[in-house]
Amino acid sequence: MTAQRRSSNHRRLRGLALPLVAALLAASCGGGDDDAAPDDQVADDDSDAADPDDQVADDAADPDDQVADDDSSGDPPADDSDGDSGTVEDDDESDGSPVVETIAPEVNTDPVFGGTLRYGLEADSNGINPAASSLAVSGLMMGNAVFDTLAALTPGGGWVPYLAESLTPSDDFRSWTVKLRPDITFHDGTPLNAEALVINFESQRAHPLVGLAVKPFFPEEGATTIVDDLTVTYNMLDPDAQWPSASLAGQLGMVASPTWLEAAAADGSLNQAPVGTGPFMFDSRSEDSVTRFVRNDTWWNGDVFLDAVEFFPVIDPNALVDLMFGGELDALHTTNQASILDLRDDESVQRVESDASEESFAMINSSVPPFDDIRARRALTLAAPVDLYNELIALGVNRPADQMFIPESPFYNPDVKQEHDDPDAAIALVAEYCAERGADENTVLGTPTCTDGKINMELQWSGPSVIQTRIADLLDEGWKVAFNVTFNELLQDEHIAQTAFGQFNVNTWRQFGNANPTGDNVWLMCRTIGGISLNWPRFCDEERDALILETMATPDDAGRAPLLQELVQKVHDDYLYILFNHTLWENAFVENVHGVCARTAPDGTLLECATNGRSWFSSVWMD
Amino acid sequence: MNYWLQRFGTSVLLLLSVSALTFGAMNVLGDPLFNILGPAARSTEVRGTAQIEGYAYQAGKGNSTVGLVVVDEADELAPGQALLVSVDDELPMRTDTIAALDSVTVEGGLVSIADSVTPGDSVFNGPDPEQLFKVAQAEKEFYLDKPLPERYGRWLGDFVTGDMGPQFSKTGEPPVTDLIKERLPRSVMLLVMAQSLATAIAIPWSLWSASKANKTVDKLSTFSTFLIIALPNFALGVILKYVFAIKLSIFPQTFNASDPFFSRVWQMFLPALTIALPAAAVYQRLLRTDLITTLQEDFILMARSKGVSRRNVLLKHALRPSLFSFVTVFGINTGALIGGSLIAETIFRVPGLGSAVVEAVATEDFPIVLAIVMIVATAFVAVNVVVDVVYSLIDPRVRR
Amino acid sequence: MTDPAGTPGAQAATVGAAALAEDAAPEAEPITRRLGWAFWLCVGWLVVIVMAAVLAPWLPLKDPDANLVNRDLGRPPYSPSSDFWFGSDLDARDVFSRTIFGARVSLTVGFVAIAFGMLIGGTLGILAGYFRGWLDRIISFAFVVLLSFPALALAILITSLIDRGLLTISLTLGFLAIAPVGRLARATTIQYSDREFVVAARSLGARHPRIIIRELLPNVVIPMGALALLGMAVAIVAEGGLAFLGLSVEKEETWGKLILLGAGSRELENSPWIAMAPILILFLTVLALNFAGDKVRAYFDVKEAAL
Which of A121, A173, C244, C296 is 20 to 30 A from A112 (CA-CA)? Predict the structure, then answer.
């Protein structure tokens, strides 16, 4: 048989695609009503770059304490979170924490058994298989119900072993030994053991999409070594001193039943019926409608109080909040700013609010003209109307972002400022570029890179989405001084595929926010560039890689801080991301929901309440 | 009888044409493989990624492995060149990294050299043979390598036996018939409610107008039909939603499929009204016109002179012969509404066939689109036939 | 007279319903051979809106794309005022200006669509009606096939398969107009073909093209002219529907897109003018087209044969 070559029609992709590239970010795309596009969560998304010393969640901080003025000088956050401050603009310092909670961590003294929690998601997920579905926030929320992760995050930004009994690194941090707790079985009776772990790992690695986040960091052979029935050693290519918080507290740390994994690999429809070790078991699922999980009576980490949890994807953020106010939902998560304002106004709503998570930005593809030239990228950045974006789209709810860290983070680099709103400088740079390289070809558009002294470019997003349309119009208004912007609203599958294949100029995106910043390495390193690239801008900088690797090898935050600050400077200087703001996630619960922040590890350590928009229900009860 | 036979033949031909055109459009203008596999469909070209060191990739599904089968005739293969290898004589698979030929086991098949790659690129992003396997499999399963007419024929064969194909865009690829079964009842419910409302509004209104023909109130009434018809349906929907669901909060804003029956009826009232109001206006005008014409007939005069009351004249004598135009358009509307009302369903979030079409087009899930187009076309044809039958029943002068 | 513009359910297939609806009996009320003041009012409005659309770039309107944030007024959207006649939208853009500029695309689509439909449909219809026989059967069958499609679904499908450019959308809608226009043209042609002057022309030895162009066309054009106005209304509404579903042109504003941007429940509740202003202008324009078309039709008193 001969090679079958398929020629592409109209600007379609050339290259390799993987089926769940579509799923990558598909779920998080929601209705696109948030201020950003796909949000990639292939690797991990545990956020919480809070200072470990931060006193979080000790009281109901005034919700208006969000700093808009980003001149805060990285002072250590104030310890008294009485945060009753004035208006947003006046505050120079946050209340001491990037996380606002109106829920006090409770010890569950008199929990009531029973009740069904109805949770509103911003979108549905294509499937709930950590080894086969790319889980964005919605998928991770459902995953949280049915799977446990090997490690779990603590409010301070640290980690503790969770499903694992212990997680021990080798001296050089190239190997991590995971020892499981004994006598745990999956919901289908399969025992949790070393072999199960290895099967999970290999399934993830073998998957064309999920594997992209795994393969670059492990050797082909000998990535895992079974030590005994409950112990596996993972051998990595590079030392990673904080691997558990980077990888094992999120999707890649979710452990699924190997029996189920194998069955799902053969029959894709089983991706909808997950089997894990978690506090809830899968009950039923009607895609885009409702997914239901029921209590696991034999959960290994204590009592589960709720009878059931039901997830309802609601694309329209207005409808989502209205449903909760109307009593049809008990909880929800959202990044929609108008909704957040409404939720803040309602005293009866309990909230966990945090912007220590992702950033939303416009992302530039550096692998094709015109943006393979740094001048073009810089010009685009300078011309970007970030202020208007934050005012009109983000409604002042989100803090503008200069870098991937919030000011409270120990890794924050106060010298790095996002450039924007400087059209004159942009025009000058574009003139320079066009004079020299205006005759190159913009392969995405099929036109020369410059026309009439302005750069031709394509802005791409997934739709149809009202808010994305508004964003595109807004950006165009700012950019048009120096750029001829062509709009390309694509269907989600197509948009994601084109991004993954590097067939775009600029798009709007949402990313970063792993509690452990090196967990975001997959988006930044050379080794993830390829036919399909998780390094979306396709920018390879060996020095940047070296920095990341060095950070990974450094165990303590104090040592990592200067490296990460240098990394932030590098990312800024490469002009690949035009940051708009820090995404603010709101997790809201009605009055009669309790125990949201009472989650503990078996040894009693208090665990993170909500991170990057997702929370857990193992400790929740309703009355 | 001959007439009906001819009619039947025309109808069948009509449906075939509709389906052929749609099928053709989707396959020629669109990319059917993409519809089946999504972005995986692109994985047919080898992109440059390979490793220098010898590495033989074993393709497999899940955890089972399929041995690489290399072939007899092979050109000189440079390090880093990718190979096309067949696995079981029928389905080509590709490996992403082959360093040297002798690191691959030979068992039989055909090799051809694909694009060369740049040595030193990362191995991790090579084309995945498994995906290529899926592509080849999909092509086989859906006959994509066959010419268009044959594909159409196969689709048609399946379709008439009730197999409408899979929903490519949904995970697990449930059959389209599931979607139809789920959504058709809602569209039908909407249709029934809308037509009932429209008729309930139109008939009394037209009777009243006809009896007051050409007086000022009638002129106002005619003018108001203009107003109603001139307002686009989506604008009307938005206004109704604003006034009744938001401002006055009488009706809920959205539809919830899992609610009990009467709740759902209530939730469907506004979308039904969105459809019904313009329809009522159209019906009213038709009925009024026909009523006025009928009222000028002799037999009406006779009935009146016999002392039949105005009311009875209208209801019992005039109405029935005036129904023709109304019945025609009523029928057309019914046929069209079976396919759901795209706009009303979108505004009020009713998951019916109309919104299914919008979603399916958005995801290029063409079996769904085809199925719904066929349903509407069939309904259209069927309704035309029914209308003819009703005509011949109503009016003894019109008989075949 | 039945008006196709608002026939629901079929959405843009109202044009399809139009053809059949128009086969209904005409008004039995006395025909006034005056167009009336209302007609001229409608024409006036149409002239105004078309001129405004054509001259928009030169009129003293605010930039429709500019974000005219005025911090003294708080956060947008701003309610209607002397500064923003129709208020502003969520991004502080002037709704009045956007509505005028939106007319450019909406009216263009309406015009091109119906022109295309009339050109192709009219030609086919006249040929079918004049020559009858197998040509008529084929063409009529083609019309029926086209009419059987759920029109809006088809429009969405085609634009998603090809592209969402102005021309594509216009031609797609025009394509959907072919059948209803064609049927009317055919019906009218059939009617006139039997009239004396045509018979006379033929017996005098006139050749087909001459008969068609000199005798039939002038008579067919008039009811088609009325249909043109009605059809344009339908096309504008159809484009509005497409835009409302988010599937019309990508960059420029159109009335449907403006309405969509204002139709969220939050926006309707707090700032209804964002949607209501374009709805009003669209409504008035469609009303004017419908009314004028209706009056033209009544004036020329054409009886369409039932098919």
Answer: A121
Do A488 and C247 lie within an 8 Å CB cutoff? no
Confidence category of residue A107, pLDDT binned at 50, 70, 90? low
A619 touches A595 (CB < 8 A):
yes
Q: Which residues of C touch B293 (CB under 8 A)?
A: 25, 28
Task: Report the largest interatomic distance among the alpha carbons of chain C, rounded to a whole angstrom.
Answer: 80
List domains and CATH numbers for chain C: 89-306 (1.10.3720.10)
pLDDT of residue A84: 33
ipTM of the complex: 0.79
Quote the minimal CA–CA distance from C270 to chain A in Å: 12
- State the smallest CA–CA distance between residue C132 and chain A in angstroms: 42
Do A404 and A536 have their domain in common?
yes
What are the chain C neighbours of B337 within 8 Å (beta carbons)? 8-10
* Amino acid found at A427: I
Choose the mutation target among A11, A13, A18, A260 for the interface with B, i.e. most B CBs under 10 Å.
A18
Q: Are A245 and A46 in contact (CB under 8 A)?
A: yes
Contact (CB<8Å) A16/B42: yes
More confident residue, A413 or B37: A413
The Cα-based distances of B119 to B48, B50, B79, B97 in angstroms read 8, 6, 7, 10
- Overall domain count for chain A: 3
Residue C159, pLDDT above cutoff 80:
yes
Lowest mean pLDDT among A573-577, B100-104, B366-370: B100-104
CB contact under 8 A, B253 and A319: yes
A neighbour chains, 3+ CB pairs within 8 Å: B, C
Q: Which residues pair with A100 in a beta bridge?
A: A353
| Separation between Cα atoms, residue A9 and residue A7, nearest integer Å | 7
Q: With contact defined as beta carbons under 8 Å apart, do A146 and A118 qualify? A: no
Give the confidence band of B309 by pLDDT, cuts at 50, 70, 90: confident
Residues A491 and A537 in one domain: yes
Question: For residues C130 and C53, which has the higher predicted lDDT (pLDDT)?
Answer: C53
CB contact under 8 A, A469 and C69: no
Strands A308-313 and A116-121: parallel
- Examine the pLDDT at A194 and tell me if it is beyond 70: yes
Per residue in A515-551, is it b (16+ CB within 10 Å) or e — as a string? bbbbbbbbbbbbbbbbbbbbbbbbbbbeebbebbbbb
CA distance B167 to chain C (A): 16
Which of A351-365, B308-322, C190-204 has the highest average model confidence (pLDDT)? A351-365
Residue A261 above 90 pLDDT? yes
Kindly list the distances between the CA atom of residue C80 and the CA atoms of B247, C245, C263, C274, in Å, as whole numbers in the listed order.
Answer: 20, 26, 17, 10
Q: How far is CA B247 from CA A114, A324, B145, C275, in A?
A: 37, 19, 57, 15
**A552: in domain:** yes
CB < 8 Å from B in window 43-102 of C? none
CB A455, CB A430: distance < 8 Å: yes
Task: Decide the pairing of beta strands A454-462 and A506-511.
Answer: parallel
Residues of chain C found within 8 Å of residue B347, distances taken between Cβ atoms:
263
DSSP helix/strand/coil, A294? strand
Residue B253 in contact with residue B246, Cβ under 8 Å? yes
Please give, rounded to a whole number of angstroms, the shortest distance from the CA of A31 to a CA of chain C: 12
- Of A198, A230, A262, which one is at a domain's C-terminal end? A262
Among candidate residues A436, A322, A459, the one with its CA nearest the CA of residue A373: A436
Same domain, A431 and A573: yes
In a domain, A7, yes or no: no
Q: Are residues A406 and A440 in the same domain?
A: yes
Q: How far is Cα C286 from Cα C195, in angstroms, rounded to an integer?
A: 35
- Quick check: C291 contacting B, CB < 8 Å? yes
A42 and A124: one domain? no
CATH number at residue A479: 3.10.105.10
